[in-house]
Amino acid sequence: MQDYQQGQNSDYQQQIMYNNMTSNKPNNRLNDEINQNHQKLDHKGPPKDLKIIDVVGNGTFGVVYKALLNKEQVVAVKRVFQDKRYKNREREIIERLDHQNIIKCKDFFETKGEKKDEVYLNLVMEFMNFPLSKVIRDKRKANQVMRIEDIRLYAYQMFKALSYLQSLNICHRDIKPQNILVNDKDDDKRLKICDFGSAKQLIPNEANISYICSRYYRAPELIFKSQHYTNAIDMWSMGCVIAEMVLGEPLFPGENSLDQLVEIIRILGTPTRQQILMMNPTSQEFRFPQIKSYSWSKVFEKSLQKVSEDEKQKFNQLMDLISRVLVYAPSERPSPLQALAHPFFDELRIEEKKYRQTQLYLFDFPEAKEQEYQKQIEQLKLIPNGYSKKSYS
């Protein structure tokens, strides 16, 4: 498996570049294939009225284009090389998903490459303005911190998306700011998780590859080479993303896998033998320098100094949420639904009427086959009294 982290782990070496970031010329060859009714390699070819406009992102995964569908609808087209050595689950997973905080796949088609037997999968998806990484970077450049209200709205939508994925036993396995798309307008704070190229439906007792997830956001059990992890690895990644929104930079910027663990220990302290075994019961590595944990108020000290007195209580709630998510033992991390019930999000429920005219649908939870999922939503009182569900399909 190729190292996802080589040269593409952070804002400074971005995997995805959107809109007013570096852009290349449109791929005319792909346009030609679309227009010339190329040889069909799947059950259907590309949509007739699809025109590629520009390149908005690229990386080891492939290329993302901005395109027009039916001459008026702006969409994104993700073009991925179909490497026969690796199983690509992205299409089969993304076609199953229907959630307001997960990017929707509108269509797909395959195209031939320049070399013999070279095939590319093209996913036609919703278009969003920016990756969250750009929003974080812009704030950092301006020496500003993200507003608590914006962090709350984005974090809430992230946890909602994860709760839906968990109800389907789907683990994203590459949560990071580059894979979280936002509109980031004053009147539109919609957020959607994208890029399911590393996603997998987890099956109990089935081993999974541990060398997964971009390094800065990689859960410690993966560093300890656990092959029987859970959706808790996505929760760890999400905690890192939320911390990055606060700090303006990655919380654990390790230079390699070993250094990544060092960065985590620097803040959380040395894991106990019991914690290591909770991360990976087969681990034989127990000898680490004894380092005490670092207080979260120290971690976020500079950001806290930029927060007004009125918002310090909210900031303390945010730190408490992060501290509960970023713990060594996977079983001790809250589930996404439990995270949504955290007091940091109470203000959203109290001010529910404020969001009724938006397209955020904060309190719409899709029906799930698992009764336990619906039961937890009711027990945690995630839906405000009197709230009427909207349609987001």
Question: Describe it for me?
Answer:
The chain has helices at 28-35, 90-94, 132-141, 148-167, 220-223, 232-247, 257-268, 273-279, 296-299, 301-305, 312-325, 336-340, 346-350, 371-379, and strands spanning 50-59, 62-69, 73-81, 105-112, 119-126, 130-131, 170-171, 180-182, 191-193, 200-201. With 393 residues, it is of the alpha+beta class. The chain folds into 2 domains: 19-126, Phosphorylase Kinase, domain 1, CATH 3.30.200.20; 130-379, Transferase(Phosphotransferase) domain 1 (Transferase(Phosphotransferase), domain 1, Orthogonal Bundle), CATH 1.10.510.10. A 5-stranded antiparallel beta sheet has the order 1-2-3-5-4, covered by helices on one side. A 3-stranded antiparallel beta sheet has the order 6-8-9. A two-stranded antiparallel sheet has the order 7-10.
Topology:
Blueprint: H1 28-35, E1 50-59, E2 62-69, E3 73-81, H2 90-94, E4 105-112, E5 119-126, E6 130-131, H3 132-141, H4 148-167, E7 170-171, E8 180-182, E9 191-193, E10 200-201, H5 220-223, H6 232-247, H7 257-268, H8 273-279, H9 296-299, H10 301-305, H11 312-325, H12 336-340, H13 346-350, H14 371-379
Antiparallel strand pairs: 1-2, 2-3, 3-5, 4-5, 6-8, 7-10, 8-9
Helix pairs in contact: 4-6, 6-11
Structure in a nutshell:
The protein has helices spanning 28-35, 90-94, 132-141, 148-167, 220-223, 232-247, 257-268, 273-279, 296-299, 301-305, 312-325, 336-340, 346-350, 371-379, and strands at 50-59, 62-69, 73-81, 105-112, 119-126, 130-131, 170-171, 180-182, 191-193, 200-201. Helix content is 32%, strand content 14%.
